[in-house]
Amino acid sequence: MSYLEPRGGQTPSGGWASGQPDVPAPYGSDGESDPYAAYRRETAQESTLSGPSWNAFTPGPAAVAEPDPGGVEPRAPWAAATAATSTSQAEWELTAAEADGPRGPGRRRAGRGGKPVAKPAGRAGRNLPAAIAVGIGMILVVLASLFVYKEAFLGVIALAVGLGVWEMTRALKITGARAPLIPLVAGGVLMTGLAWYGSTDALILGLLVTVLAALLWRLADGVAGLRRDLEAATLISVYVPFLLSFGVLLARPADGDYRVLITLLAVVLSDTGGYAAGVFLGKHPMAPTISPKKSWEGFAGSVTAAAVGSSALAYFLLDVPFYGGLLFGAVISVVAVLGDLAESMLKRDIGIKDMSHLLPGHGGLMDRLDSILFAVPTAFLLLSLIAPPG
Fold it and tell me: How many Cβ atoms from other residues are within 10 Å of residue 73's Cβ?
């Protein structure tokens, strides 16, 4: 029965006569002209009997939740889908979408328990005490491996390579790419060892071996999607273990601990100077579609802080003239910002906010290595020119 037909054979009061065509009167002239009038009237009666409720203040037809005749919960117009915030959540939502079929315009995106995804608490969107504790712990581990037992620094880099490859493989899986994890992790560890005991030529050879091993491993599953998966494997091999292995090359000389320290501090100064300048002076967005919070004023602060700080560090630690340190810091700041933007663009393309939840308060390890990945090979090249080892 249509919502517009009289109930029980009675003629509705105020506007309907028997034999007249079933044409609704204009809204406002009669309550029955609204197809949701019966639904609203019954809801109002229930709210009167049960006490005050938000249902008693039901809005007009444009905002009323349309009842689903199939027994499904009402489709609420305000139930907009929320963006995925990590690879784990995005992977689960992708699996759920494949199992349930296409999601309708009014279906709410749910979490693992079937409940709507909750937004992170706090204004910063992260646990600040945990973030500080994890950050300090990572710095202490790196410094101890550099100045107490340098060979342990090779293990730190190898561990970072393995975790970074794992995060990247999971992240790209959301796009449909299935990069083989085992040969990529093994090849990444191989590259760090070749960089420590060999040279840049050995590192490039390790990259070629890693890509070839990933290709052979992937061929065992057939040729369907082979090109897509091989492109993902090549991206991961270059982006994570190849670039990060330059940190091993940077630490090999007798003063390698100072070289790594200056590079890391230049990145920290760049981030700190950019944040301070962006907060107090930032007005002109630098890349609004990739990273809306970055501004040109913040970029100028990054370059200035890194250049000034690096000039002093390079002079006292490596006996580099001030102008050499200024150049080193400025270039490191530029490539660090580019590295940050590159990973932001990659995450936006995938549709995630963090690479993982591995580090409390920070997201994934790759979210902390984004600036360092581009800075390490650049520092190796620059310091080889302005402060040759030996």
Answer: 12
